[in-house]
Model the fold of this input.
Amino acid sequence: MPSPDRLDFYDGELRAHHEHLRAAYGISPGDDVVDIGCGTGLTTREAARASAPGRVVGVDVSERMLERARQLTAAERIDNVRYELGDAQVHRFDAAGFDVAISRFGTMFFSDPAVAFANIAAALRPEARLVLLVWQRHEHNEWARAIDAALGDAAQPRQPGADPFSLGDVKTTAGILEGAGFDGVRFEDVHEPVLYGHDLDAALAFVRGFQDTSAAFATLNDGEAARTVERLREMLAAHHSDERGVVLDSRSWLITARRRR
Done:
């Protein structure tokens, strides 16, 4: 299992975007909340504090992430949370069991987003709220463009179900959500950096762990891999400052909607 530092790096990367999601939760005491793609559970734990005595369920496809989430939840003595291993596209939620569904970059990887959001909608009570962060299109995210440029010819085409930018088009995503049973779909532009910390070696290791980056390295021989690592390091160094560390520009959508009556 990767170290806790590695698993928690993601929370640091996204902290500027996360503040927008936190401000939009609108969770009240007694709300029942589901967190889609909860990862190591930062968003789940926040929801649990806001909703107590309501219950919160965090769902993710990664058992290693959920193990870390359970460790952190126990350490913080939060007792109104449970974590479930599963893909929200097909996971068997309690029907009409939740007042709020949240997700921080956890909904872009469904093989069939229309089916997935219909399944999520079925888990929500009428008028329940949906609050999501998703990446905008690839061309609006410097971090992705810069990594792809460093990978060069090894950069892999993104496949359905493995594309972090799959919900970046407003018209398409609004249509998916409306078709799934949501009304009042709103998109708020979030223009914030991604933050890779002050240590270049740690930032490089984190970026090499991205799914697309790992897939690219799997196609390279030793010499090509070494040259590609150096290009990645140079790219990250070019975005490093003593004051802020490694910082790249990025944009996401904060999406809010309500379950149709």
